[in-house]
Amino acid sequence: MVFSIESVSKEYRSGTKVLHALDSVSLKIEDGEIFGIIGKSGAGKSTLLRCLNLLERPTSGRILLGDTDLTALSPAQLRDTRKRIGVVFQHFNLLHSRSVAANIAFPLEVAGYSRADRRARVDELIELVGLEDRRDAFPSQLSGGQKQRVGIARALAASPDVLLCDEATSALDSDTTDSILDLLADLNRRLGVTIVLITHELNVVRRICHRAALIDQGRIVDEGTLTELVADPDSPLGEALLPAGTVRTSPTGIPALLTFVDSLSTSPVISQLSRDLDVDVTVISGGIEDIGAHQVGRLRVEFASHTGLANDEETRKSVEEHLSQRGVKVTFS
C-alpha cells in the first residue's frame, strides 16, 4: 500500500466562518495502481492532493505513506520523505531560463547529485518521455504536450514511489491529452510507479485508471475499480462513466437497468431471454465499453410479455433469474 488516508478533514477559517474543504475522507491507494480522484470544481479534490504530500496540513486525521505517518514527521523528516513523491502540475511550472535538460536536472541539483550522475539520469529520463530531439530547447520553444513531458520527467528525477498529477491534462487539447495519458500508463507499467490523478474529466479516468473515487463537497461518495463501478446499478460514478440514460415508462413494458461485465460479449443473452421466456426486450439507451481487459455495460431496457402479463411479478422473477444465471444484474425501475 502506498497511501492510507484515515479520516482526513481540512477546514479553512475566516473570522467566524468555517469552510469544510475535506470532511472525514478515508481512502487506500495501493502500490503500483493508477488511482483517479474525480469531482467538480470546488469539490475538494485539489485540497486532498495537497494534503497527500502535506503542502496542506490536515485539520484532523492521518496520512500514511507506506508505514510512515506524514502528519507526525518533523520538518526535516518531511522534506526527506517528500523525495518519494513526485508532482506533475496543470500549468507545467517550468523554469523559462533553463533548457529541457536543465529543468529535469533541477531537483537533482537541489538534492546534491554529482554532475555526472545528473547527466546520466537526465539522459535516461529524456529518452523515457520521448524528448531526445528537444534536449536543448527552452520552454518557449515547446508545445503544451512537450512541456508536460518535461514536467513528468522532472517529477520522476528522484525515482519517487508515487506521482501526484493535479489536473495534468486539463490545459491540453484532446489529442495531446491522450498522448500524455498513454505516457503515464506506460510509465506505470514500466516503472511500477503509483499514479494518483486529480481530474474533473471523465475521459481521463475511463482511459487509464484502475480504480477511482468520486469526491463531492469534501466527502468521498463513491469508490471502486472501474469495472465494479460501471457494473453497480447504484453507483453515481459508474453512471457518469457509462451513462445508461433516464427511465422511459410504458404502459406495456417493465423498465429495468441491466449491468454486467463481459456477459453480453460471450453469448447472445438478450436474444436467448426473448426466446426462452417469450418476452420482448427493447434496448432504450446505454452502452457497452472496453474498460481495462473487460467489456462492461449499462443498458436501460424494457421487457414486455407476449402474454400481456407485463406487470406480473412472476414475469419479473423469471427475467431476473434467467439473467442473473448468465452474469447480468437486473434492477427494475
UniProtKB/TrEMBL annotation:
Protein name: Putative ABC transporter ATP-binding protein
Keyword entries, A-Z: Amino-acid transport, ATP-binding, Cell membrane, Membrane, Nucleotide-binding, Translocase, Transport
GO BP term (any one): amino acid transport
Organism encoding this protein: Rhodococcus erythropolis (strain PR4 / NBRC 100887)
Residues covered by the ABC transporter domain: 3-242
Gene3D superfamilies the UniProt entry points to: 3.30.70.260, P-loop containing nucleotide triphosphate hydrolases
Subunit structure: Homodimer. Forms a membrane-associated complex with FtsX.
Record carries keyword Secreted: no
Entry's Gene Ontology molecular function annotations: ATP binding; ATP hydrolysis activity
